[in-house]
Design a protein that fits this description.
Layout lengths: L6 E3 L7 E5 L3 H13 L3 E5 L2 H11 L3 E5 L6 H11 L13 E5 L4 H10 L3 E4 L4 H14 L8 E4 L2 E4 L4 E4 L2 E3 L3 H12 L5 E2 H9 L7 H14 L4 H4 L1 E3 L3 E3 L7 E2 L3
Parallel strand pairs: 1-14, 2-3, 2-4, 4-5, 5-6
Antiparallel strand pairs: 1-7, 7-8, 8-9, 9-10, 11-13, 12-13
Helix pairs in contact: 2-3, 3-4, 6-8
């Protein structure tokens, strides 16, 4: 039996996950409160180490990083993200990065850009300017805010919670297996080429690592059990698609 027409829950589509790494308590609380009020799911950290932990486990859509953290750890965190290969590391090397630097930190601005920041904002800054810069980063990255839940037949993907259920049964997926399934489910009938999947999930530097993609697709099929071959379709010589059915339609309000 073929999977049912995939549907998308649109009720939470305007939420993006934002990581805020900021040492100053007052600034961190102010920004977190306002960004949450503006519809972001905000993750907060007051150190580079905690920020790295959240980057590895929560996969934010954009990150704001205090470049002035002690011992240059903010700059080191920027570099660590950009140097991640997306395979051995759980960090997404393509996450948009906005660095926050001191008002007299011209050298910090240069260093932040050298370490991989996509944009730099000098203190003091207005909240409105911060929001506009965040929105611009999300647009440039091609991120479509939020995502809510995707449903394809008996397969349900909660993109905000990073959770997957098949016929009501939770599946234990690795970060990359989840990312692969999410990309395929977002446009389930289109054939996603191997090169674009490698670029979007593992980073451009690993475009040639097709065996990495194939092994993750095989493991994903196994975890889906008897439905694996039905949901993760290998289009030989081209790439993968999720299913052979019509495109998603919005759920009725």
């Amino acid at each position: 039996m073929s999977p049912q027409v995939p549907t998308r829950d649109m009720t939470n589509r305007d939420r993006s996950t934002l990581l805020l790494v900021e040492e100053d308590d007052a600034t961190r609380v102010f920004l977190a409160d306002n960004l949450t009020a503006d519809g972001f799911d905000v993750l907060v950290a007051d150190s580079a180490r905690d920020g790295l932990r959240l980057l590895e486990s929560k996969f934010p859509d954009v990150a704001l990083i205090d470049a002035g953290l002690p011992q240059a750890s903010g700059l080191e965190l920027l570099a660590l993200v950009r140097e991640a290969d997306g395979v051995a590391s759980r960090v997404n090397p393509q996450v948009p990065l906005l660095a926050l630097v001191p008002h007299d930190g011209e050298l910090d601005r240069v260093r932040a850009l050298e370490r991989g920041a996509d944009d730099v904002l000098t203190r003091p800054f207005s909240y409105r300017e911060l929001r506009l810069r965040i929105d611009a980063l999300l647009r440039r990255s091609g991120h479509r805010a939020g995502g809510g839940r995707l449903r394809v037949g008996d397969l349900e993907i909660d993109t905000a919670a990073r959770a997957v259920h098949l016929s009501g049964r939770p599946l234990d997926l690795s970060a990359k297996e989840f990312a692969l399934l999410r990309v395929l489910a977002a446009d389930p009938t289109r054939v996603h080429t191997k090169s674009e999947l490698l670029r979007s999930i593992w980073g451009a530097r690993t475009v040639g690592a097709t065996r990495t993609l194939d092994s993750h697709a095989c493991r994903l099929r196994r975890k889906l059990g008897a439905d694996g071959g039905r949901y993760v379709v290998n289009v030989w010589g081209v790439g993968y698609r999720l299913v052979d059915v019509p495109a998603p339609v919005p759920l009725a309000a």
